[in-house]
Amino acid sequence: MTSAVKLRLAALVLAMAIMGGLIAFVTLNSQRQSSDLRDKLTEVDVQSLSIAEHFKDMLRDGSDKLARYRTTGDASAWSDFLKSSADLNAWIQTQISGPVTPHEREILQQMQGAYADYVHVVTDVHTATMTAGTNANLSADLNSKLSQTRRKLFDLGQELSQAHLDLKKQLLGEAHYMLRCLRAYILGALALLFVFAIALGVFVYRDMIAPLRSKLVETQAAVDQREKLASLGLLAAGVAHEIRNPLTAIKAALFTQQKRFAAGTPEHSDVKVVEREIVRLERIVNDFLQFARPAEPEPVVMAADLLLLETKLFFTPQLEKNRIQINVEPSAPMYVTVDPAQMKQVLINLVQNAADSIGSDGAITLRTRHSRKPLVNGEKSTVIIEVSDTGKGIPVDAQKRLFDPFFTTKETGTGLGLSIAARIVQKHGGVLQYQTQVNRGTTFGILLPQATA
Questions:
Q1: Which residues, in sequence order, are bridge partners of residue 337?
Q2: What is the pLDDT of residues 392-422, one digit of tens each?
Q3: For residue range 419-446, what is the model confidence (pLDDT) as tens digits?
Q4: Given a cut of 50, is residue 135 above it in pLDDT?
Q5: 332 touches 383 (CB < 8 A)
């Protein structure tokens, strides 16, 4: 698993953890707010009942004492009324200075003024009672004022109770709003959590499961290919061995027979044609044997550019005939552990393919460069030996089968050159890769682990 994949996976898991924590925080905070609102509602209910009932009881008690005084004219009844009146006035003062809403404070202040008017009227009643006696009838105007002031006090008491009920409705509205917000928060957080879960599933499948599945398919295909190649190699080895002995006998007999024909005769020309074909058959047989039973490399540490210089010297005379330049780009010394003979065989095959692709009038460039690439045993410091040409490139339909044994686009090719080259590079712990553009050229790269000089 690469660091980028680990980072994305950690980011998704962290995002899901944050969303889970956010849901828990919102839930706990909402529970706390719900508990506070429940306490406030309970307090409002109790206050609404206690204020309304207490005020009515105190007002009713004062009215009863006033009525008893008016009936009996007893001074103690008047004293009781004055005490009750003082208690009610003190209660109103306490409520005004208490923790009430502005509207409730306004009602209590009106109640205080109305009660002062009530006490003033009651004082007039007391004066009239003292003057006319207990059985005297009060004037209609005084009775009307007494009833009006008492009714106003009762109405203000009802208003105060209604103000508490309005506060309750307000708190209930806040509770409903809070519940709606909580529902929206939780649903939104769950939706985001669901999205993150889907993203995590897609990420795990795309970056972890799918590559493993693809690698498993590739591994199975490689195993099947190796089994086919092993069977084919055994068959090729047997056939090549059986063909090699007759070829040797035919070649010896032909060498004897060609001495009988003078140079320039038709018979001598026919013998030369047969000789060329025998040599071609020997080359095909040797390729079969090498493909069937590749030799184990005998590696030594050597400079990579030395391989390129030897390859250039080998090909220069041949390529000059077709006006093809072969160049080696200078580079810093880099070392690889290889079997020189086998690696030169790979380079000769690649350069020959490049020359065949160019035909004439072109250039082949050999270079080495340093990189860090994944190889068979993991990511390593590598030396890339490249063979670039200015040829026709590789057709798209041929690229899929480029390294398949016996697949070739040449009329006289065996289709084993690149297969053998790839196997040699693989035995050295490296990889053979390529990049190509039709009508622009091809670059083959031999990736090998870098060695210490």
A1: 301
A2: 999 888 888 887 777 777 776 677 788 888 8
A3: 888 889 988 889 999 999 988 999 999 9
A4: no
A5: no
306 CA to centre of own chain: 47
Tell me, what amino acid is at 63?
S
Domain shared by 194 and 313, yes or no:
no
Burial of 412 from C-beta contacts in 10 A (0-12 / 13-18 / 19+): exposed
In this structure, is residue 429 part of a structural domain?
yes
The CATH number given to whatever domain includes residue 82 is 1.20.120.1730
Residue with tokens 């035909």: 359
Domain boundary among 149, 184, 203: 203
Q: What is the 3-state secondary structure (H, E, C) of 71-116?
A: HHCCHHHHHHHHHHHHHHHHHHHHHHHCCCCHHHHHHHHHHHHHHH
How many structural domains comprise the chain?
2
- The enclosing domain of 321 has a CATH number of 3.30.565.10
Residue indicated by tokens 């980011």: 11
- Beta carbons of 79 and 91 less than 8 angstroms apart: no
Question: Domain for residue 238, yes or no?
Answer: no
- Does residue 126 share a domain with residue 12? yes
The number of angstroms, rounded, from the C-alpha of 351 to the middle of its chain's C-alpha atoms is 45
Q: Which of 382, 383, 330, 318 is nearest to 354 (CA)?
A: 318
Give dist(CA 73, CA 140) in Å, integer. 20
Residue 432 — φ and ψ, nearest 5°?
A: -105, 120
Residue 240 has, within 13 A of its CA and on its CB side, a CA count of 19
Work out the burial of residue 152: count CB atoms within 10 Å of its CB; fewer than 13 is exposed, 13-18 middle, 19 or more buried: middle
From residue 87, give the alpha-carbon distance in Å to each of 59, 361, 447: 10, 122, 103
Tokens at residue 379, please?
A: 């990511």
Q: Is residue 226 part of a domain?
A: no
Question: How buried is residue 447: exposed, middle or buried, by Cβ count under 10 Å (0-12/13-18/19+)?
Answer: buried
> Is there a domain that residue 430 lies in?
yes
Amino acid at 62: G
> Domain range spanning residue 47?
3-203
Beta strands in 283-340 (DSSP E): 300-303, 324-328, 335-338
Please report where in the chains the tokens 């009329």 appear, as a residue.
411
Residue ending a domain, among 143, 176, 203, is 203
Record the tokens describing residue 52, joined without a space.
């309304």
Q: Are residues 45 and 186 located together in one domain of the fold?
A: yes
The pTM of the whole model exceeds 0.90:
no
